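Pilot study result, target chain (197 residues):
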Amino acid sequence: MNWLIFLTITVILLISIFVNVGKIMRGDEMLKGFNLGDKFSTKKPKKKITKGDEKIINEIYGLQDEPRKAPRKKAPITEERPRSKEGTKGRRWKIIITNNDLYEKYEFVFRKSIGIGRIENTVDFEEFLTVDDPKVSKLHCSIVSMRDSLFIQDEGSSNFTFLNKKKVKKPEEIQKEDIIRIGNTTLEIIRVFRESR
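Predicted structure:
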């Protein structure tokens, strides 16, 4: 009979130990006051970006030192930019994008930029992809040509732009098979071509 009582108490103690260790590992609120050291910490420390890192990032992406404060203003509609292909210099890009939700395919040929948003078109861009989604801003994001690469940048949208599930905070380089999410719409980059010299 004594061994049965001993076995029951041992089992209860083992269960109690496993439950408490589980709470410690999860960071239970009741146990937050205990200092268990870094051995039991499940959170990864965040790496702080220094001023030197910011300078390097800004140089790589060609950004200015000061942060973006407000979305840029659109040019008045009366001031149209030259849109003829002959009048502009530089090699052209061809990009093929699919809307994975509607199974639609779009092809664009441009030199400098494509706008993406809910409105029909704007003179700020050579081409414009209109997305019929109420969660997409009128001008949500743009694809721009910089230094022999294509970059996506958010244009001050209210629901943000995501590239491969990461929020776009600064211009991010895009390439084949990248996934762009704006609002409830998912776009995939199928092909990117550059005109030969």
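One observation from the pilot: The chain is about 20% helix and 30% strand. A full batch analysis is planned for the follow-on phase.
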